[in-house]
From TrEMBL:
Residue stretches of biased makeup (Polar residues): 16-26
SMART domains assigned: AAA
Single GO molecular function: ATP binding
Key words of the record: ATP-binding, Cell membrane, Membrane, Nucleotide-binding, Transport
Positions of the UniProt region annotated as Disordered: 1-36
Protein name from the UniProt record: Phosphate ABC transporter ATP-binding protein
Pfam families in UniProt: ABC_tran
Domain (ABC transporter) ranges: 44-285
Record-linked Gene3D superfamilies: P-loop containing nucleotide triphosphate hydrolases
Record has tRNA-binding as a keyword: no
UniProt xrefs under InterPro entries: AAA+_ATPase, ABC_transporter-like_ATP-bd, ABC_transporter-like_CS, P-loop_NTPase, PstB-like
Protein's GO biological process: phosphate ion transmembrane transport
Species: Natrarchaeobaculum aegyptiacum
Amino acid sequence: MNPESEAATESEQTEVGTAQRSSDVDTTAADRPLGTPRVDDAIIEARDLDVYYGDTQALHGITMDIPEKQVTALIGPSGCGKSTFLRSINRMNDLIDVARVDGDLYFHGKNVYDEDVDPVALRRKIGMVFQKPNPFPKSIFDNVAYGLRVQGKDDGDVEGKVTTALERAALLDEVEGKLDESGLDLSGGQQQRLCIARAIATDPEVILMDEPASALDPVATSKIEDLVEELAEEYTVVIVTHNMQQAARISDRTAVFLTGGHLVEFDDTEKIFENPQSQRVEDYITGKFG
Ligand SMILES: Nc1ncnc2c1ncn2[C@@H]1O[C@H](COP(=O)(O)OP(=O)(O)O)[C@@H](O)[C@H]1O
Ligand SMILES: [Mg+2]
């Protein structure tokens, strides 16, 4: 895929994230999992979302409102569909041949699966950070500037934007004066913060993180956790973690997915960990399975 040629067609597309809330967004509570009143400040609204890989259904009827500028954690046992749900938000599942999505996913009230949505533009508004840090074999500066250049936005103050992104990703102090060194020479934790800086540089509204600290040592993990909490002042963060303590520490709301691809409970993080409504969630939280 050539991102530059895809970007060229973008002007013909509806700008994502600017649409008015569409009137057909379902606002009834009937099909919501436990503890999920509709939130007024929802930036992302999933409605009866199913995802299939070939004939296998990985997610069943996910209905969920993700609040703006908060940290929403997705937890649950391996294989329950956390990564699949995360990828459905910015249409990364499009890149998997056998994946098929049914149902609706609204971003600012616009269905991201509408025909006039350009997935490349969508992914700049809804950036993603993966489990394994994946810097490009380029300088630290070029890693962060990459998104801006692809976007054709390097006419302005690239240096300023790179510096700001590195600062927001809590990496600037550690790399100042060596921005021309390779991103691959950084430690694992620094590489992950570099990837976060790269995602931030294009000025997204939402940052999706798929177990961003699970390949890192405890010190680097704690830096990422602090950073996630800071980022939520400016961005909406949706983070998958298999570490329940991490979800409890850093998230405002927690969604519990359980085996088979069902969202079983979604509520304030405190409530999920202290007083879950579902017995299955309580069993999972207290370590009886999973
Ligand atoms: N690319 C893929 N092709 C086929 N099946 C997949 C693919 N990715 C995930 N799956 C299946 O979908 C289910 C959910 O996977 P995943 O979303 O990765 O779960 P989690 O992130 O919670 O561990 C699993 O059964 C997994 O095997
Ligand atoms: Mg996963």
